[in-house]
Design goal:
Length: 470
C-alpha cells in the first residue's frame, strides 16, 4: 500500500496532462480502493497518506475546472472517493484521523462544486456516480462520530441541499442518510437545527420522502419531532401532503413517548395553536370544493388526542382551556350538523349501512377523536371539568354514547370521558344525575302515550301491569 501511495504522490507532483498520465493515476487509485477493502490495510493509514489523497483530489478538481481530460479526470476522482469511503467502514481510527483533516473536507466541497458546474454542460452519468461516492464517503466518516458530524454539516450542508435538484434517486437517498446521521447526532444543538440551511434540508428531505418513501427521511423526521421549535420553522414551508407525512411519523413516535425520546413539547404546542386557529376548516368537509384542506387539522386532532393521554409529559397541552373550548365548540357544531340529515357527520347505527362507509375519508373517526381529546383533558383536572360543565359539554358527550359506524369505539371513549369529567367533581355528578333522570322521565312519558302505565322510581322505569278490567 505504501508503494502505491508513493507512486500517487510522484504522479501528482508532475501535474499530469495527457490521457495516458490520467489513466495511470486512475489505475493507482483503483489499487488504493481495493486496499481499503481489507481491514488490516485500513488500519495502516497515516495522516501523510491522507495528505497525498488531498493532493490528488485537488489535481482532479483543477482538471475538471479547466476541462482537462474531463472523462479520465472524473474517473480518477471517483476512485479516490471510493478509497475514502472504504477506509471509513467500521474503522473509528480512520474516522478520528479524518476529524483533523478539515482541509480534506473543504477540498471535497470543491469537488462537489466542480462536478455541479460540469453537469450543467454535460449529462454524463459518470458525474452523478462520482457525486454519489462523495456523499457515501461523508456518510461513512460521520457515522457514530460527533466531531465529524459537526464538521461535515458546517462545511457541506449548502452543497448537499443542491444535490436534490439533480433528481437522482440514489444520490437523494444518500443525501438523506448524511442529513440524518449528522443532525441526529446533534439533537441537543438547537442552533444547528434551526439554521436556515438546516431548515432547507429538512424541507428537501420531507419533500423527497413524501414522493419516494425514503427510510432515511423517515428517520430524520422522527428526530425532528424531538427538537424544540423545529415545527414552527419547517411547517410554513411544507405542502399539506408533506405535513401529513410528518404527522403520520409523529403519531408512530408518540406511541413511544413513554421513554426518554419524547416528542418536543413546543412542537405539540405548535400543533395545538394551529388546530385552534384553523379548526373551522373541518366544517368544509361537507363541501365538494374546499379552499383549504381540513385533513391536516383532522390529523392534528388525532395527534392531540394521543398526546393528552400522557398526562405527565405534556401538562401545558392538557391544561390549555382555549384548546378545550375549541374542541367542545367543534364537537357541538358537527353533532348538530349530523342531526340535520344524512350527511358525513350523521350517525350510522344500522349494520346494513356500515359496509358503505368510506374509512379513508378525513371525517372517519373525527367525533371519536374529539371525544377522546375532551376526556383526556378532563382527567384529574378540575378547571377543565368545570369548563366542560359550563359549556354544556356533559350532555353533548352523553349524546355520543350510541353506536356509530363512522366512529368506531365512540361509545367506549364517551363513557371514559364521562368518567373523567365527573371524577371527584360533585357539581358534574349532579348534572349527570339530573340528565339521567330527565332521560328516564321522557322515556316513561313516551310509554304512557302508547297506553303503557309507567313511572320513574329509584332511577328505574317501572312498568305497571294493566288493570284486570282493561
Amino acid at each position: 500500500m505504501e508503494n502505491t501511495f508513493s507512486a500517487v504522490k510522484l504522479a501528482c507532483s508532475s501535474s499530469p496532462a495527457s490521457l495516458s498520465e490520467w489513466q495511470h493515476l486512475n489505475e493507482l487509485s483503483v489499487q488504493l480502493k481495493n486496499c481499503m477493502l481489507v481491514e488490516s490495510e485500513r488500519t495502516k493509514l497515516t495522516a501523510e497518506n491522507l495528505s497525498t489523497l488531498v493532493d490528488l483530489i485537488h489535481l482532479c478538481n483543477h482538471g475538471l475546472e479547466n476541462q482537462t481530460e474531463v472523462h479520465s479526470t472524473n474517473n480518477c476522482l471517483t476512485e479516490v472517493y471510493r478509497t475514502l469511503r472504504n477506509m471509513c467502514v467500521e474503522c473509528e481510527q480512520n474516522q478520528d484521523l479524518l476529524s483533523n483533516q478539515e482541509h480534506l473536507y473543504k477540498t471535497s466541497k470543491d469537488s462537489i462544486q466542480a462536478l455541479m458546474n460540469q453537469i450543467k454542460s454535460s449529462k454524463d452519468s459518470d458525474i452523478i456516480v462520482t457525486l454519489r461516492c462523495i456523499v457515501q464517503f461523508l456518510g461513512n466518516c460521520s457515522v457514530g462520530h460527533q466531531k465529524n458530524q459537526c464538521l461535515i454539516w458546517k462545511i457541506f450542508v449548502e452543497e448537499l441541499n443542491k444535490l436534490f435538484d439533480l433528481s437522482d434517486e440514489k444520490l437523494s437517498i444518500y443525501t438523506c442518510m448524511v442529513a440524518h446521521t449528522c443532525l441526529s447526532g446533534n439533537l441537543d444543538n438547537q442552533d444547528v437545527w434551526i439554521s436556515p440551511d438546516t431548515i432547507q434540508m429538512l424541507t428537501n428531505v420531507i419533500c423527497y420522502t413524501t414522493e419516494c418513501d425514503c427510510e432515511w427521511g423517515v428517520y430524520l423526521i422522527e428526530s425532528m419531532c424531538k427538537v424544540d421549535s423545529s415545527f414552527s420553522k419547517v411547517f410554513p414551508l411544507l405542502k399539506d401532503t408533506e405535513k401529513l407525512l410528518v404527522y403520520e411519523v409523529m403519531l408512530d413516535h408518540l406511541d413511544k413517548s413513554g421513554n426518554d425520546q419524547q416528542t418536543s413539547k413546543s412542537n405539540l404546542q405548535y400543533i395545538a395553536e394551529d388546530m385552534k386557529s384553523q379548526s373551522y376548516t373541518i366544517l368544509s368537509l361537507l363541501e365538494k370544493h374546499q379552499n383549504q384542506n381540513p385533513v391536516v387539522i383532522v390529523k392534528e386532532i388525532e395527534i392531540l388526542g394521543i398526546a393528552t393521554s400522557f398526562h405527565n409529559l405534556y401538562p401545558d397541552i392538557n391544561t390549555d382551556k382555549d384548546l378545550l373550548s375549541c374542541v367542545i365548540y367543534l364537537l357541538e357544531a358537527i353533532h348538530k350538523i349530523g342531526l340535520q340529515g344524512d350527511n358525513l357527520f350523521s350517525r350510522v347505527d344500522k349494520i346494513i349501512k356500515m359496509g358503505n362507509i368510506d374509512q379513508d375519508h378525513a371525517g372517519y373517526c373525527l367525533k371519536r377523536d374529539l371525544v377522546k381529546l375532551i376526556g383526556n383533558m378532563a382527567y384529574e383536572c378540575k378547571p377543565n371539568q368545570d369548563l366542560i360543565r359550563e359549556m354544556n359539554g356533559i350532555p353533548l358527550v352523553l349524546d355520543q354514547t350510541s353506536i356509530d359506524g363512522r366512529n368506531p369505539y365512540i361509545q367506549q371513549w364517551s363513557v371514559l370521558a364521562i368518567h373523567n369529567i365527573c371524577k371527584d367533581n360533585n357539581e358534574n355528578k349532579g348534572i349527570l344525575a339530573s340528565l339521567k333522570f330527565e332521560g328516564l322521565a321522557e322515556e316513561a312519558d313516551m310509554l304512557k302515550k302508547y297506553g303503557v302505565k309507567a313511572e320513574v322510581k329509584d332511577n328505574k322505569i317501572i312498568v305497571k301491569p294493566p288493570p284486570e278490567n282493561e
